[in-house]
Specification:
Elements (H helix, E strand, L loop, with lengths): L2 H7 L25 H8 L14 H14 L3 E5 L2 H10 L7 E5 L4 H13 L3 E5 L5 H5 L6 E7 L11 H10 L4 E4 L4 H4 L9 E5 L13 E5 L11 H4 L10 H5 L3 H14 L5 H11 L2 H21 L3 E5 L9 H7 L7 E6 L2 H11 L4 E2 L9 E3 L11 H6 L6 E5 L5 H12 L3
Parallel strand pairs: 2-3, 2-4, 4-5, 5-6, 10-11
Antiparallel strand pairs: 1-7, 6-7, 8-9, 9-12, 11-12
Length: 421
């Protein structure tokens, strides 16, 4: 199936007499006839559902659709994008290990890594998203377990060279994890460029309507965990009677461990209701993303010529420093998000936001409605001045998430607000 068809059809194949629309299996538990059957499920010797904290038919179906869209061997839905990022790391790293991450990532992800996981004993080095291959190679340590980047950084809109990061990571026998939330698999498929694990906040474009929190971890199945230092996958797990994930599950070792070990213990499962809503969003993802990109392109071109705008960062602009690399990885468009610097500093940015009428100030991004946010005082508020600079966040930066309304109405709203700066 082509990508557009997978958005609508992948994952769910109703049989004779089954509901045409994916049903919500709103049950915590499932019935079996014998203790032996249940025991095999607990020993990972049989497939099936027995408790929704580990697996559920609705979630399983939507996860299969997203795996198909990204080109992976399997996927696991989580309660939020934050949970997906957490599990993507802790599935292979523990106290005493080291991770390399881009400094220009979502503020919540940065705090998760720099505070919570660092408190748990996992060390992090944060690097520029535009770092050279040689500089990146110098950051690896004997205990490095992964490299983590975003396809298009939130909110600075840097476009990362996925292929370069993948080659350097693989040369050091570690996987590349890519957060593909902004681009979505419609505009970029990181696995095709060497990524090993892909994560998303499905609350954004995948849902598309700001109604369902969620995340997903996708396993490419391409990384050979036996060639590096990953004892959590290559040595017996005594909590599952000594199973060795790489031996029993082969290419699916990473995602099976996510589902059976991490989800079992952390319990960060997405609800069946939210998975159902996510699936509805996925069915139109291939229609919405081109509209988001077209509207953002029009808005960016307008903003670039406005005298009250100091700078505009959008990869679709020919003047943008990421224009060429964006065309390489995302030839059909990047996303609907623009970062823009308003004249007048932080105060000018505030006046601009407060004057908007169609666009609203919300702590969200990437849904059908146009919205704005001031990252330095909200999502990245906890960062120091140097960390803000490293993340590409200026005091006058506005993150503008362009929706799917009529582009003339969006631009008219931006114009009247800029007149009041």
């Amino acid at each position: 199936m082509k990508l557009d068809t997978k958005c609508v059809q992948a994952g769910y194949e109703p049989k004779n007499g089954d509901p045409r629309v994916l049903p919500i299996v709103q049950s915590t538990t499932f019935v079996y006839d014998t203790a032996e059957t249940m025991g095999k499920l607990f020993d990972l010797e049989a497939d099936g559902f027995f408790y929704t904290r580990l697996a559920n038919p609705t979630l399983d179906t939507v996860a299969k659709k997203i795996a198909a869209l990204e080109g992976g061997v399997g996927a696991m839905l989580t309660a939020s994008g934050q949970a997906a990022s957490l599990i993507s790391i802790t599935n292979i790293a523990k106290t005493g290990d080291h991770i390399i991450a881009s400094a220009a990532i979502y503020g919540g992800t940065f705090n998760l890594f720099n505070k919570t996981l660092r408190d748990l004993g996992i060390d992090f080095d944060f690097v520029s998203p535009t770092i050279s291959a040689d500089e990146l190679a110098a950051c690896f340590k004997p205990n490095t377990k992964a490299v983590f980047i975003e396809t298009v950084t939130n909110p600075s809109l840097d476009v990362v060279d996925i292929e370069m990061f993948a080659k350097v990571a693989h040369a050091h026998k570690v996987p590349l994890i890519v957060d593909n939330t902004f681009a979505t698999p419609i505009n970029c498929r990181p696995i095709e460029w060497g990524a090993d694990i892909v994560v998303h906040s499905t609350s954004k474009y995948m849902d598309g309507h700001a109604v369902a929190l969620g995340g997903v971890v996708v396993d490419s199945g391409n990384f050979d965990w036996t060639q590096g230092d990953f004892p959590m996958l290559t040595t017996p797990d005594e909590t599952y009677h000594g199973v060795v994930y790489t031996e029993q599950f082969g290419r699916s070792a990473y995602i099976v461990k996510c589902c059976t070990h991490l989800m079992r213990d952390l319990g960060a499962q997405q609800s069946p209701q939210n998975a159902f809503l996510l699936n509805l969003g996925l069915e139109t993802l291939h229609l919405r993303m081109p509209r988001h990109c077209a509207n953002a392109q029009a808005a960016a071109e307008f903003l670039e010529t406005n005298p009250n705008v100091e700078w505009v960062n959008y990869p679709g602009l020919p003047s943008n420093k990421y224009y060429d690399i964006a065309k390489k990885y995302m030839p059909n468009g990047s996303c609907g998000v623009i970062s823009v610097g308003i004249k007048g500093g932080k105060e000018g940015a505030a006046r601009f936001m407060e004057a908007l009428k169609l666009a609203k100030i919300v702590i969200h991004v990437a849904d059908a409605r146009t919205c704005v946010l001031h990252p330095a005082t909200t999502t990245h508020r906890q960062l120091s001045e140097q960390q803000l600079i490293d993340a590409g966040i200026a005091p006058n930066m506005i993150r503008l998430s362009v929706g799917i309304e009529d582009p003339e109405d969006i631009i008219a709203d931006l114009k009247q607000a800029l007149e009041q700066v």
